[in-house]
From TrEMBL:
The keyword Nucleotide-binding applies. The keyword Cell membrane applies. Pfam families: ABC_tran. Keywords: ATP-binding, Cell membrane, Membrane, Nucleotide-binding, Repeat, Sugar transport, Translocase, Transport. PROSITE patterns: ABC_TRANSPORTER_1, ABC_TRANSPORTER_2. Residues 8-247, 259-501 form the ABC transporter domain. This is ABC transporter.
Amino acid sequence: MSSQVYTLEMKKISKQFAGVDALRSVDFTVHGGEIHALLGANGAGKSTLMKILSGAYRSDQGSIVAGGKELSIGSPWEAKRAGIHCVYQEVDSALVPQLSVAENIVLDDLSAPEGRWWAAPGSMRKRAREALGRLEADIDVRQYVSELTLAEKQLVLIARILTQQANTIIFDEPTAPLSEEETRRLFRTIHTLKAEGVACILITHRLPEVIEHSDRVTVMRDGEQVFTGPSSDLSVGDIVTHMLGKTFEEEFPKTDAPIGETVLEAKGLHRGLRVHGVDLQVRRGEILSIVGLVGAGKTELSRLLTGADKPDKGELVFKGRSIRLREPADAIVQGIVSIPEERRKQGVFIEETVERNLSLPLLGKLSVLGFISRRKERTNGNEVVASLGIKTPSLRQNVKYLSGGNQQKVAIGKWLHSGADVFVFDEPTKGVDIGAKSDIFRIIGELAAQGKAVIYLTCEFAEGIGIGDRIAVMYDGKIIKEFTRGEVEQEQLLLYASGGEEVHS
């Protein structure tokens, strides 16, 4: 390697989607032999910036310079040819499970346009062992990738990258699915790469990892770079302040409702590596916000509460009696319903009409002598559309043609007349516009005013504070802190949700 330090610079990068600024004149620099953390809340623009660097998007303005030469990156292949590679948390999408470890490690060589089909099994295995040896990874190169753990798959992907003369590696939330020991091993690998002169870019929501392992930090907010500086000068609280800005002025149209008796209680829920000993309870007329960052275990918890998954240990108590939920249908019968994060896959049938989606949980009530009453179905649809303000040309419109916000209203609306007692919302405002968000907050407030118990899981801290009567913080699969409405600010939530020192105090 040359004695001159490798430097990659992104200069004045701007990007718009449908006329909306995603990035505004962003500068970002990383040096060889450096771990540079790129941070920001959801929607800050960090993923867009890295997609431009890795060739998934083209910037509208700006330039990328590496090793003193301006790069033209229009595809992931061109990025790889320039020595820029990515390690995503969904490593399965980058590996071929039916091939061996050795075959996966040399896969890019075998599929290169210029063709290098000379690779015999013996030479493939030798190259694979050499690459894994640089990472001190003890993995049998003859094994099929399908037989490996997630952490081992990450190492295989990194080993493949090392065979490609990588000078820049982007690690996008690499520790989110890993155990503590696997996380320690991964960071040992990243520090090995740093020592070899590789420029390492780390994207993570786990702020203690940033303080411990990175050399510099860049923080983005609302599509702009707002801070760059040495990690050694920062505390977790400092990073939180840069990520959120100085003010918190969000207002939520929440209707005050009398709080009644406990409806649903969870006792010591465990599920795999993602949910650890969760205790919670929610009462009639109450909105319980559960906030946490990506990978905290919120979705896994919501699936346990609604019967989509079964706990390894623990108990659910509904209206004072223990219940066992083997599937979502069991939860629905009890009166516990889910508005899941992936609404297009799990919340609605996008190929069906608005009318049919709104009637699906009510087919028994809407049927006469075993046949669905079209009059009753239409009446139900009209009532829900009017109540929730669903914008659709007609009840016969297929849901796939509605906006994200209106699709979400349909996902909520199908339960309005079901008689459910508990509503579990998982990231309900994901991908919806500001107007639809306000409508969703209003709807949730009205549910509470009707005496429904609401559990609201979100990584948007402003929403959690604004809508919740109580706010519970989830970190690493556990609920680690709880606040009542009005006694917590956004900065405190992010500090706890990021594993700040106060978590363990």
